[in-house]
């Protein structure tokens, strides 16, 4: 883990909405300032900004392993990491891959290549658009494959934006797991963990999970996590690996139901 001296990051969240798959900026900016101490980033995994993953690959490079070899997995898991986390994966959900692949045969997984830099406008939209294009392209080759989407922190924003994109084939989504979601809103049907009040630092944008997907979504906000509750201790944002087994079982149930339907 990279050790970074005490730093104060000004996280700027624009008042924006997703309309027709693109981000439409509204007037004004809402600013949230967090003193994250040695962990200057909103991620929580193997490494932290400035060692972030670069921007998404070109269209010709955005391929899912396995599809190009003639075989079609029955399901594919795509993870979107938090700020500063690398393509090595995300500690909050890395074990979910192992649990699900061991329990449900015929699957595969990949980390979404997108910029995990400390920027929450263009890079989130680009990551979401990249994922939609990947899924659509692979379904053209493997129409029976279904998908599981997993996101942590900034990655939860990417997954939510992807799911509300008008080009996302929602019927092919078997399950979604979100940890520390900045779009979190208390009282939503998909909420699964112990945060029962408040809203995430980006919830004011109006971006929210489509109602028709709610029963396939495990949206986990830990009580006191300021990223998904606005107030609290930033250390709560780094506790989600303790929920990995529960989230794995949620995915396994949803996958088995989807694959048998």
UniProtKB/TrEMBL annotation:
Keywords (A to Z) from UniProt: Disulfide bond, Hydrolase, Signal
Xref: SUPFAM superfamilies: alpha/beta-Hydrolases (SSF53474)
Pfam families for this protein: Cutinase
GO molecular function terms attached to this record: carboxylic ester hydrolase activity
Signal sequence, start to end: 1-24
Gene3D superfamilies noted in UniProt: alpha/beta hydrolase
Superkingdom of origin: Eukaryota
Name by which UniProt lists this protein: Cutinase
Organism: Puccinia sorghi
């Amino acid at each position: 883990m990279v050790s970074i001296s005490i730093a104060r990051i000004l996280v700027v969240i624009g008042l924006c909405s997703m309309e027709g798959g693109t981000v439409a900026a509204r007037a004004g900016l809402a600013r949230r300032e967090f003193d994250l101490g040695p962990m200057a980033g909103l991620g929580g995994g193997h490494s932290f900004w400035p060692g972030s993953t670069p921007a998404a690959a070109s269209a010709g490079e955005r391929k899912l392993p396995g599809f190009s070899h003639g075989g079609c997995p029955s399901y594919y898991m795509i993870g979107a990491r938090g700020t500063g986390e690398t393509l090595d994966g995300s500690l909050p959900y890395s074990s979910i891959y192992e649990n699900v692949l061991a329990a449900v045969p015929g699957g595969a997984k990949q980390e979404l290549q997108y910029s995990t830099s400390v920027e929450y406008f263009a890079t989130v939209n680009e990551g979401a658009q990249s994922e939609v294009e990947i899924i659509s392209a692979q379904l053209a080759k493997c129409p029976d494959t279904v998908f599981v989407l997993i996101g942590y922190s900034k990655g939860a924003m990417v997954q939510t934006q992807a799911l509300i994109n008008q080009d996302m084939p929602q019927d092919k989504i078997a399950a979604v797991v979100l940890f520390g979601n900045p779009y979190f809103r208390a009282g939503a049907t998909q909420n699964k963990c112990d945060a029962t009040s408040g809203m995430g630092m980006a919830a004011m944008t109006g971006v929210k999970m489509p109602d028709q997907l709610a029963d396939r979504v495990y949206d986990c906000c830990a009580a006191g996590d300021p990223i998904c509750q606005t107030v609290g201790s930033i250390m709560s944002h780094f506790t989600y690996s303790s929920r990995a087994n529960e989230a794995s079982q949620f995915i396994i149930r949803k996958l088995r139901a989807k694959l048998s339907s």
